[in-house]
Amino acid sequence: MTRKLLLTLAIGLTPVFVTTACSAAAPDAPAPAATPKTQAAFNSTEFARFDEPWAMAFLPDGSLLVTEKGGRLQHFDIGTKQKHEISGGPKVAYGGQGGFGDVVLHPAFASNQLVYLSYAEQGSNDTRGAAVARGKLVLDGKGGGTLQDLSVIWRQDAKVSGNGHYGHRIAFGPDGKLWITSSERQKFDPAQDMKSNLGKLIRLNDDGSVPADNPFVSQGGVAAQVWSLGHRNMLGIAFDGSGKLWVHEMGPAGGDELNLITRGENYGYPIVSNGDHYDGRPIPDHSTRPEFAAPKITWNPVISPAGFMIYSGDLFPQWKGSGFIGGLSSQALVRVTFDGENAREAERFDMGARIREVEQGPDGAVWILEDGKDGKLLKLTPKG
Prior knowledge:
With 384 residues, this protein is mainly β. The protein is 4% helix and 41% strand. It has two helices and 24 strands. The strands form five sheets. The chain has an eight-stranded mixed sheet, with no helix packed on it. A hairpin with a 5-residue loop joins β15 and β16. The radius of gyration is 19 Å and the shape is globular.
């Protein structure tokens, strides 16, 4: 199926809405063409601003941990609207798309206080790579705190030059395993090379060791970490209510993707894509190589996806089971719906700013972080 026909079908089958105002596009993708925008079904309330925020995680008491790309981990009290820096974090390689990344709590955080962090790490000879570390969060009585016994449990292999496509979104699955998106660092071919863990979805035990039931464990080395391969730049990962794993990734020039992840599957990049190279060279569509898994949604024009959560709350009952994706160049909050192993875009909300992160709050509200310096933390609640 051609990209033009895919786009025609997408427009015909789904109510597509997008902002008409675009900021400078992310280096990963050009800004999309303007299309009509939807009426927002929520109120938006600003709670704070952060310096290049990248990710957030709610603590059991309802407060937030927020990563700032430059290297700070902030603890934010929603009630008092006060933020305090957490000390003891990793030293990050800041620049381009690199810096502090994701923050996720261990499933048993209430008893072990373990926090997992991803970030870009400096190597030798002007190289960098993503890393994941874990440490114990110890808060003090003033709202601050420290990370104790921080240790690296995973690294991209090998470290390479450049400042793009780290990925490093992390999540815990229903099986208690740790999942890491390891993007291909703008190097293309490593996504198909099992001697590298670039361009792969990684599955580990919570201590960084390799589960015995991973699909390529018999190959040893970094291949043993791999659950799926052939990925480009994965910036969102979420499990739906039935335990299926969904990952979105930025495509090249056109062709952002939402993929349903299958054990041991190859998703084809850079051999196939529903987008093309930035210099105009074509990449064969997925339909030309059916042995590769094709995306469930392709966006062309792109949305530049960042952040991803699947809603399970009661505050917005009409959204239960929907996925929400932050749009960077599209400056939108994109809602997708699922039907078994299929997905479609349902609507798109104009946010007027690049959206980096989306999370569900304890009360079922939707929280988003704007991208960039002075990025807003916003709480979305139902109108009326």
